[in-house]
Structure formats: C-alpha cells, structure tokens
C-alpha cells in the first residue's frame, strides 16, 4: 500500500502515526494492498482556498477528501480492486482548536480527521441520519482498533 504524507504546513506532526493509522484503516476496510493514498497537511490560508474552490464555503475547514478512482470497501470474500484512493487534506491549525474544545491532543484530532477523510474517499457520507450513524460507527471502530494495535506495537 502506498501512503504518502506531505506536510506543507508549519505544524510538526507524527507522519509515521498517520501512515500507521491509514494502513490500519485501509486494511480494516479491505482495500487492495496496491491502492494509493495521499495525505497532505496545509496551513489555514491554503485550506481556505481549497474550501472556497471545492465546497463554495468561506474559511478554512478541518479536512477535505478528494476521491480519485471511487474505490469502495471490500468484503470478507474480496478486496477492493487496486487503484488511486485519492487525497485527504488536513489543516493542523483547525484540528488544534477542535482538539482543545474536545479535550484531547491535536494528534488525536488529526488521526480522527484522517479516518474521517478516508471514509469519505470510500464513499461514506453523513448527510442523512442513517449514513451518519454508519460512518461514525466505522470511524469509532477504526480508531479504537488502531489504538489497541498501537498499544500492542509499543508493548
């Protein structure tokens, strides 16, 4: 699996943790090992420009997802085909304010946003209540599973 993390922001982050989480999430969603994912971290001005250009909304946002090959999760019998999953763009400064409000670390918020972005790349959405329930349940399960795998890795 090719997961490229490109930090174009001035914020220092644990890029290896973002890669490990992404690998965990893609494995959990049964994505082919030859799928490609890019994660880009940008400052608030760059995120605002993307937010205006692609969503027509002012101000920076926390995460944007740009799917490429419209890959969908595999199932127990079959992996998704290989291909370009797409790009997840994160804004660490927005994540930092959200983390403070939520009472956890900025890195925890970036892990959550990365998971959220990956699920959007895989076609999940949260516009409707049933979609939101499914997506946020998957997001929670992935983050819990990742945290457990990190504990095992460090032990």
From TrEMBL:
Highest taxon in the source lineage: Bacteria
Cofactors, names only: Zn(2+)
Residues the entry annotates as binding Zn(2+): 116, 120, 126
Gene Ontology CC entries for this record: cytoplasm
Listed EC numbers: 3.1.-.-
Locations listed in the record: Cytoplasm
Chief location of this protein within or outside the cell: cytoplasm
Keyword annotations: Cytoplasm, Endonuclease, Hydrolase, Metal-binding, Nuclease, Ribosome biogenesis, rRNA processing, Zinc
Cofactor binding summary note: Binds 1 zinc ion.
Family: Belongs to the endoribonuclease YbeY family.
Stated role: Single strand-specific metallo-endoribonuclease involved in late-stage 70S ribosome quality control and in maturation of the 3' terminus of the 16S rRNA.
PANTHER family, sorted: ENDORIBONUCLEASE YBEY, CHLOROPLASTIC (PTHR46986:SF1)
Protein name: Endoribonuclease YbeY
Organism field: Alpinimonas psychrophila
């Amino acid at each position: 699996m090719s997961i490229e993390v490109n930090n174009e922001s001035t914020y220092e982050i644990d890029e290896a943790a973002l890669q490990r989480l992404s690998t965990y999430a893609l494995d959990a969603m049964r994505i082919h090992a030859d799928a490609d994912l890019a994660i880009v971290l940008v400052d608030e001005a760059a995120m605002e420009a993307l937010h205006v250009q692609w969503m027509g909304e002012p101000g920076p946002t926390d995460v944007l997802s740009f799917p490429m090959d419209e890959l969908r999760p595999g199932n127990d019998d079959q992996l998704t085909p290989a291909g370009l999953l797409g790009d997840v763009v994160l804004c660490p400064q927005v994540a930092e304010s959200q983390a403070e409000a939520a009472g956890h670390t900025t890195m925890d918020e970036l892990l959550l946003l990365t998971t959220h972005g990956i699920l959007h790349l895989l076609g999940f959405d949260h516009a409707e209540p049933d979609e939101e329930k499914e997506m946020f349940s998957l997001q929670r399960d992935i983050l819990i599973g990742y945290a457990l795998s990190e504990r095992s890795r460090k032990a």
